[in-house]
Amino acid sequence: MEDLLRELAPQVLGVLARRFGDFATAEDAVQEALLAAATQWPTEGTPTNPRGWLIQVGYRRMIELVRSEQARRRREDLVAQRDPYDRQHAPAADEELTAERDDTLVLLFLCCHPALAPASAVALTLRAVGGLSTAEIARAFLVPEATMAQRISRAKQRIRSSGLPFRMPDEAERADRLAAVRQVLYLIFTEGHTSTAGPDLRRVDLAVEAIRLTRALHARLPTDSESAGLLALMLLTEARSPARTGPSGELISLADQDRTRWDAAAIAEGVALVTWALPRGPVGPYQVQAAIAALHDEAPSTGATDWPQILALYEVLERLSGSPVVSLNRAVATAMVHGPEAGLAALDALTDDPRLAGHHRLSAARAHLHEMAGDHTRAIADYRAAAGRTSSLPEQRYLTMRAARLAAVAHQPTTKD
Amino acid sequence: MKYMLLMQFSAAGTDFPGIDTWSPEEIRAHIGFMQEVNDKLVSDGEMVDGQGLGGPAQVRIVRAGADGAPVVTEGPFAETKEFLAGYWVVDCDTPDRAVQIAAHISTAPGPGGRPLNMPIEVHPVMSAPPVEL
User: Which of A391, A392, A398, A402 to substitute to test the interface with B, most B CBs within 10 Å?
Assistant: First the structure.
């Protein structure tokens, strides 16, 4: 039942918010309708049309909320002015409104408003589109519920004061907003994919939720190749997650992962998606990253990976994004194709980039390439420098371990017999 | 991103006397300022936790003895010039924002209403890796 409610919540919210033009009140009404469903359905049985049931209960609650407002008269006048007569009745329970099928998408666009800070857009999206409770979102981000409640209510106030009507942004604005939507979904995904905050069974799995929402986006915009690329990237990345940490939560590098533990079904789906998306154009960064992930996922080992192809893709990605981290990854791919010296030379060219100055990934990449070249002294120094700069605990342990392993080899007395 | 802000009482870096010598008004102004900081952090959705800590006289240092039983000593703080007076854990968008909050906390009023300019340490809370290695 929980899954059903989560699926229906954004649809119901979309209908109510559209009818009343008031997102914040509609959200409260939906929460109450969901609460009513959660208490009544288990004893009285799930209604034949659960969506219609929720809309009717939410609609009634909405009217009560609107009426109980102090500025009741003013609000009702406003609603009456906005809505023609035929909209002032609750819809029939079995009424199917095709135009409202895109409400989930409209909600996504609304939650990913450019005026909101990314953290707020993420929280609002999980609440309004993902149907998660404030407590669940707070738990996922390890902050108190009161903090998350404030973050969400401020975001809603911001949307309200922006005066943005509840509708799809126009064509010109839509491309920008769609980019923001993808970014927020990817943020939700990376938060879930990288979190190692303990095996709490009640913790919301954000990576799974991000994939579910991106699937919904892709379903509603099936011809948008970059959204398909984003879904592919998530599937191809998440497919490796069973193998990327060891029994005590330590990181395992790509080269050392047990590839039999990767999720073959997710890889097949991701590969199919990106294969479909790439020739459609225009090619965006998510598609290229998905293509790179697909090459990794399909390779039987690091050695048997199609590195020339990956290098070519990083060159494309570098032109698309201009991010120094991408250039750094390209340097590593260069080393895999042309040898560690070529890779180190490419890294040297990046040293002066102020965006990378003091970044632990630059030292970490250099350490890996020195190790590849057999220069253990420099590798140890760079691993230690990188460990000192990262703010990620698993990454710090991984880098310290690499340094310690090389140091142990260096200190072993050489046998002379 | 989460940051831990540590408020050090530092007699070395600043030149104000201990809080036990302030007037009640000065203490009230100081506490009121801290309360405002906390309220603002909560309403901005950035507060994770924050507490004031007992002074050096109340600190105990604990070690495990030979049999694992705790061996407790009082803090050797008679001549201490620096001690931890309180902390915040905040969850904010950027490192810059954490620094901004710390700078604001550092302006907490002391004797005569002058800002204390206490040193605030900003520590990133170690988290999970941002990207695939």
Answer: A391
